Amino acid sequence: MTTRDHALALDADDALAPLRQLFQIPDGLVYLDGNSLGVLPRATAARVAQVVAQEWGQGLIGSWNDAGWMALPQRIGDKIAPLVGVGPGELVVADSTSVNLFKVLSAALALQREADAARPAAPTVVRNVVVSERSNFPTDLYIAQSLCRQHGCSLQLVDRPEDIPAALGPATAVLMLTQVNYRTGRLHDMARLSAAAHAAGALTVWDLAHSAGALPVALAADGADFAVGCGYKYLNGGPGAPAFCWVHPQHVSRAWQPLAGLLGHAAPFAFTPGYQPAPGIHRYLCGTPPVLAMAALDCGVDTLLAAQPLGGMAGIRAKSLALTRLFIDLVGQRCGGHGLQFASPDADAERGSQVSLAFAPDSAAAQHSAAFGVVQALVARRVVGDFRAGDAQDGLPDILRFGVTPLYTRFADVWDAVEQLRQVLASGEWREARFNQRGVVT
Ligand SMILES: *Cc1c(COP(=O)(O)O)cnc(C)c1O
Fold first, then answer.
1. Active site includes 233?
2. pLDDT confidence of 119, banded at 50, 70, 90?
3. pTM as predicted
4. Active-site residue 359, yes or no?
5. φ/ψ of residue 183, rounded to 5
6. Measured in whole angstroms, how far is the alpha carbon of residue 332 from the centre of its chain?
7. Is 319 among the catalytic positions?
8. Tens digits of residue pLDDT in 342-353
9. Which of 31, 137, 234, 387 is catalytic?
10. Rounded to an integer, what is the distance from CA 369 to the centroid of its chain?
11. 126 pLDDT above the threshold of 90
């Protein structure tokens, strides 16, 4: 049996432990939802207040130049670039993850359309299929569905990750995946799948929402073509923080993205009526950057850069795996007898930075849709994970998610979370009506 003292010893030995001080975490709260909304860095409130009072209040319009507001998409992009394995000037911060996905998926489809048209004979097969996972995050699937309608393409959804390579063929235009699946926490092998996609003549679009800032990402080395990522999860940029997008330099200037706007123009302040896309990733900008939100994101990204001297993303990954392994071991040791199963992979190489649990379909808990109530009962006990609804028709169970964020999650937090889970299950309190009222956001 693993004791709480063991967890405390792991904390005492943890090189990243001092980084927790960079965050403002409510007393007594075990927060295992940084994969949904990262916690508030201590620096953020003062920095945003300064931007409001000084840069906006005093500097007014001059701050576009004097305070470097116009350079924010690129400047913060350059800080994120090394976290995801790309070079400076290749990545920009803009818009939301959904909107960036719309831009890059459109561009990928446009490149494939061009390649089709360039074939010597009239093509018998047009590349008109986008392949993704049925359990991909819904907004990603919705964006793909909308673009497929526009481009006369279809979306092919694969049920099991191991079946993805076989789904790629001469009609595949794009393989679009979230590197770490939001439900199962499964980490895809980006290098292997990108190679399989390229061998089939397809392009790849990767969503890094659950991997950027959580584990080392190597977009360039692993052969990715396009990528987007989220600012408010592991980058700690605050609710609705701007997102980012990256396009491989070999593609970036070959296609327009569909949301042509002033900031993506080659010479925005020439104010000409004709659109000329900027060379490089700047064409992926559209409108004016949200400066206040950018200031908060900047502070969030700085918390990851603070880990650089302490082992960087490799150190973060090692701690993340140790935390999730401890969670898995403790659930196995202490939470038996309730039909709880792991929905996240056991193999370290396949697991992102979360542990996902589900009740076995034939368990009493599953019959009573316990997952939602269990998560609410844990919240009442000051342990915050989250619930993701399943879909019986698609064979997806309800999921209990517990994300770990090595910058601030302690080993003792994991121990305490599993102890509270044990008590919630043993007491059956999740059945109480007060834990089964659903709010607007679940
Ligand atoms: C969190 C998340 C998003 C968020 O998209 P928004 O545009 O910010 O709503 C998108 N995709 C995935 C896979 C996510 O996990």
1. yes
2. confident
3. 0.97
4. no
5. -85, -50
6. 27
7. no
8. 999 999 999 999
9. 137
10. 27
11. no
Whether the per-residue pLDDT at 222 is higher than 70: the answer is yes
E-strand ranges in 289-376 read 340-342, 354-359
Per-residue pLDDT for 431 more than 80?
Answer: yes
Q: At 122, is the pLDDT very low, low, confident or very high (cuts 50, 70, 90)? A: low
Q: Is 207 an annotated catalytic residue? A: yes
**CATH class (in words) of the domain with range 4-40+312-435:** alpha beta
Domain ranges of the chain: 4-40+312-435, 68-305
CATH architecture of 68-305: 3-Layer(aba) Sandwich (3.40)
Tell whether ligand 1 has an atom less than 6 A from the beta carbon of residue 97: yes
- In the reported structure, the alpha carbon of residue 318 is separated from the centroid of ligand 1 by a whole-number distance in angstroms of 25
Pocket test for ligand 1, best of 35, 182, 441 (most atoms within 8 A of CB): 182
Nearest CA to ligand 1 atom 2: 209
CB of 142 closer than 6 angstroms to any ligand 1 atom:
no
pLDDT value, residue 393: 81
**Residues 144-183 as b or e (16 or more Cβ within 10 Å = b):** beebbeebebebbebeebeebbebbeebbbbbbbbbbbbb
pLDDT of residue 124: 63
